[in-house]
# Entry
Amino acid sequence: MLNPKPFRLSLTQSYDANQSVNKASYISDLITASQLLRAGSVVAMPTETVYGLAADISQQAAVEQIFALKGRPTNHPLIIHIGAITQLQDYAMRISDYAYQLAKHFWPGPLTLVLYKSDLVGDWVTGGHDTVGIRMPNHPLALELINQVGKPLAAPSANRFGKISPTQAAHVYAEFGDKVAIVEGGDCQVGIESTIIDATEPHVCTILRPGMISEAQIQAVIGSHVGIQPFSKNSRQVSGTLKSHYAPSKPTFLFQDAQGLAKLQAEQQGRFVGLLLSEDYAGVFTQSITMPNSENDYAQTLYSAMRSADMSLCDKIAIELPPMGWKGIRDRLHRSCASFQQEIYDNA
Ligand code: TXA
Ligand code: MG
# Structure
């Protein structure tokens, strides 16, 4: 009988997805990780977006462990991660042509399709919903793990409910300590969670959660005969669409421009750490973290920067909003401050 005692896998080893990897040094770890998963344990695995808390979808008790560890309400559905596009038809039904097109174009990658579930997906994964979110992650270790287990892996982001998602193995350790085994996969390359699309309707889809795959990229693949309808109150519920999510524990405020910053300073006292794009603002804050100017690099470092800010000696966090077009990033920023801030500090 396998000992399911939690352990950490080579947490100090750094892994660069762009370099050729001595896979042999990981194989034995992945075999152990896949044995743990088959034995019904939860294992944290890297993906290209964020680390996930993974369990074999066919094992109800293992999946229930995920909800317990996260402190997540049991009616909030989990995404399942498959190892090949061909597995899509095993776990989803009534798959429209455009859903296939999106899978073929973006997988493996940071896109989740919500589709009607097949009987192979238990209610314990979907929180009783008749649909399932599916994606094929673009990380060699995740894909190898899924294929070694031989079943899709249900995996939400490996953070406690409502908190900042992890993009490094060390972040997962900070959340759960020795309670879960962690497969070290280096820094996540995308850095924010996948774009989620409700693809259950044949002629129109809805973006339930924006991400680094944009609406324009999606429209270019599905063509103009399939519409993209705006997210509304009637859209399917996702916990990532709760008003407050991805939240640091320190009060967090967003500002748009110099006037917004002046207003924020007038209304909020305390020692601030700033996450800044513009160097002009650096002197204003007790501490500042310079954010990258490119959208991809910003996304990749965002959660690490938010964690550093949260651990700083300052009492509050101020974040300069990036450009309007960075929708996935702005979505996460707005939710991260939602429990502290009623309005965004802009020049209005
Ligand atoms: O990039 C990602 O998507 C990461 C990595 C680990 O794959 N996963 C992730 O999972 O962000 P999670 O559980 O933290 O967020 C998934 C979101 C939740 O808001 C959940 O409510 C929604 O997807 N979701 C899952 N299945 C759904 C369904 N059938 N219908 C509507 N929303 C669904
Ligand atoms: Mg999450």
Observations:
- The CA atoms of residues 177 and 313 lie 23 Å apart.
